[in-house]
Amino acid sequence: MKIFKGILTLPLLLGLLYACNNNDTNVEKDKDVTGNNTTVDETTKNNTTNNTGTNEPIHNENEKEKTGIKATDVNYAFTDFDLEVEYADYKSYDVEYENDGNYIYAEIDDEIKGVEYKGDQAYDHIVKALEQLKFDKATNDEDVRKEVLKAFALDENYQYFDLEVKFKNGEEKHYHFNK
The whole model's pTM is what? Predict the structure, then answer.
């Protein structure tokens, strides 16, 4: 009788083990699947997919996104422009622009409207505002604040305003206002 129970238990255990098998038939042999739904090709380490299953590259959040604009095609009074304006309920408007002499980098994180842009798309959204900015290192801080708020069409009812600018001559200036 014990032999008969053992014979019946064996197929049941095999079925359970087969059901717990971790082989995914949808994953190619040469690829490893990571826990965040990205697929990494072991031979090149550069084929990735995002969570939507498309073949768009996944960007590191700290990675700057360059635009297709040539650095020589822009002529602002500054090479770096980093603006952060925070409003009530911790909603902020952040703009980053950098011209390193070779490439233009641009990012917008607008929590008020719930949008985030990088690269060409960000630059397209800020180019008109950047073109309106005519201040230089000698401009009064209050005038700079007003000019920036007007150029980016931002509300005056902020909690704090923080702007760091690096001018073409390499001089850096920090503008900070609290309400």
Answer: 0.64
